[in-house]
Design brief:
This protein is an alpha+beta fold. It is built from 6 helices and 4 strands.
């Protein structure tokens, strides 16, 4: 599986610690070093809702003053393509094609420890 995020994100650090603690192997992709493009974002959006993928509570959202733009889903998609730090983290692509967004220890236990 692949884990997308940035090393400085608390949620990403919790997810990586969870995988390490449970000896679950993963490949990490850092948005800052390897930005994802619209193709990847469109692929994720076929599996998760925009409201799940788009981070409207983060620092980047506030500094860009995106709330004032009252974006629709097309506008949010455009911003996700331009600014990967607006993606809620981590994004995990499982080998079966499923996509899991954000860190939730109980949900991770259900998915990864079955």
């Amino acid at each position: 599986m692949k884990v997308y995020g940035i090393k400085s994100c608390a949620s990403v650090r919790k997810a990586l610690k969870f995988f390490k603690d449970h000896d679950i192997s993963y490949e990490f992709v850092d948005f800052k070093k390897e930005p994802v493009g619209c193709d990847k974002i469109d692929s994720w959006l076929t599996k998760v809702d925009m409201d799940i993928l788009f981070n409207n509570r983060g620092t980047k959202y506030r500094t860009l003053k995106l709330k004032e733009l009252n974006l629709d889903n097309a506008g949010k998609r455009e911003w996700l393509c331009k600014e990967n730090l607006l993606i809620k983290r981590p994004v995990i692509e499982l080998d079966n094609g499923e996509v899991v967004v954000a860190f939730d220890e109980d949900r991770y236990a259900e998915i990864f420890l079955r």
